[in-house]
Amino acid sequence: MTTEQRANGVLFVCLGNICRSPTAEGVFRQLLAREAPTLATSWSVDSAGTADYHSGAPPDPRTVAAARARGYELAHLRARQIEPADFSRFALVPAMDRSNLSNLRALAPDHLQDRIGLFLDHAPELSGREVPDPYYGAAAGFEQVIDLVEIASRGLIRSLQQREM
Ligand code: 4NP
Fold it and tell me: Which of 78, 81, 120, 133 to mutate to test the pocket of ligand 1 (most atoms within 8 A of CB)?
């Protein structure tokens, strides 16, 4: 069996890896542990940015505060840029918006393109939508990120459960 066939991980991707994708990493990991503990033991969860602006930095303080208010701890996470090997390490690479999606499509080899998609496509009611970039906006944008990420995380858990059946 090759590394690519064995890959049992989800890598959430945004631009800077300090707002949306670390939120998705923390929320998804916690919901998976609570709602599908068996899957949580076999699936790894990580996040990355398409850009390297913030590599090594913790999540944005507004992201940490908004997540903490909803019961998710993100302060220990550190930003990193996506690298080509990620497409073979992770079975699923959900992107937060169409700009991230097209950057990922350009980076990934042809035979691993089916691992890439829009994160919100995992929730039928959010299909085709994006997680808006909150970085230059108000506090409400950070709360909206959590709302969308929670819904899509539940959809992604259902997708993983169907995959394993
Ligand atoms: P993220 O948000 O992609 O959700 O982490 C952003 C973080 C930083 C920047 C843009 C978006 N930036 O331009 O530095």
Answer: 133
Domain chopping of the chain, boundaries: 3-164
CATH number of 3-164: 3.40.50.2300
Count each helix (H run) and each strand (E run) in the chain, helices first.
7, 4
**pTM tops 0.90:** yes
The CA distance from 99 to 130, in Å, is 10
Helix axes 61-69, 139-164, angle to 10 degrees: 70
3-class SS of residue 113? helix
Q: Which two tokens stand for residue 42?
A: 């076999």
pLDDT value at residue 4? 53
| Neighbouring residues of 111: CB distance < 8 A, sequence distance ≥ 6 | none
> 96 by DSSP, 3-state: which?
coil
The pair of structure tokens assigned to 105 is 């499509």
Left (φ > 0), alpha (ψ -120 to 50) or beta: where does 71 sit? left
- The residue whose CA is least distant from atom 13 of ligand 1 is 16
Res. 1 pLDDT band, cuts 50 70 90: very low
Catalytic residue set: 14, 20, 133
